[in-house]
Amino acid sequence: MPTESRVARRPLEQELISRGVRMTRQRRLLVEIIQSADQHMDVLNLWQKARQQDPTLNKVTVYRTLGLLKKHRLVDELDLMHLESARHYYEARTTRDHIHLACIKCGRIQEFESSLFEKLKGQIERERRFRISVVRVEAGGYCDKCQE
Ligand SMILES: [Zn+2]
Ligand SMILES: [Zn+2]
User: Fold this and answer.
1) Which domain holds residue 124?
2) Is 60 exceeded by the pLDDT of residue 117?
3) Ligand 2 being an ion, which residues bring their Cβ within 5 A of it?
4) How far apart are CA 58 and CA 47, in angstroms?
5) Of the bound ligands, which one is closest to the alpha carbon of residue 142?
6) Which of 1, 40, 55, 66 could form a disulfide with 89 if both were Cys (CB 3.0 to 4.6 A apart)?
């Protein structure tokens, strides 16, 4: 199903190691979970999933690891149309920017990438002489299953 496709991600662990970050066992576990996630996860999702494999893993470690990934610009923090009030979601950065399509009925988040989006970024950069380093586009609406 092409509409469900997830955009490819760079290996986070290697990115961190190449930046000289020391990988502890718990950091490695968290990074693996973020990398392999098939959905956009918030701190609680992430913590719950990590604790299934390591019950000693503290929530503070989740925040610190996310902070580290953010500092190295390896994850994006998203609010996804505020579908769930103030929750923030995290995802590994992709090599190509994508648009998030958020269903306001079932909460499904789809990722969409297009060469037109790349063109639009180019146009903004040319016309405004603005160098884009991060771009976020979200669309809220009804997914194919939730229409009517
Ligand atoms: Zn839906
Ligand atoms: Zn995404």
Assistant:
1) 2-141
2) yes
3) 91, 111
4) 8
5) 1
6) 40
Gap from CA of 134 to ligand 1 centroid (Å) = 27
Q: Which two tokens stand for residue 97?
A: 């920017």
148 domain residue, yes or no: no
Ligand 1 centroid from CA 91, angstroms: 20
φ and ψ of 117, to 5 deg: -65, -45
Domain count, the chain: 1
Which ligand neighbours the alpha carbon of 39 most closely?
2
The model's pLDDT over 51-64, given as tens digits with 9 standing for 90+, comes to: 999 999 999 999 99
Q: Which ligand is nearest to the CA of 143?
A: 1
Among the ranges given (21-25, 31-35, 64-68, 82-86), the one the predictor scored with the smallest mean pLDDT:
82-86
Number of CB atoms found within 10 A of residue 6's CB = 13
pTM for this structure?
0.71
Token duo for residue 73: 């610009």
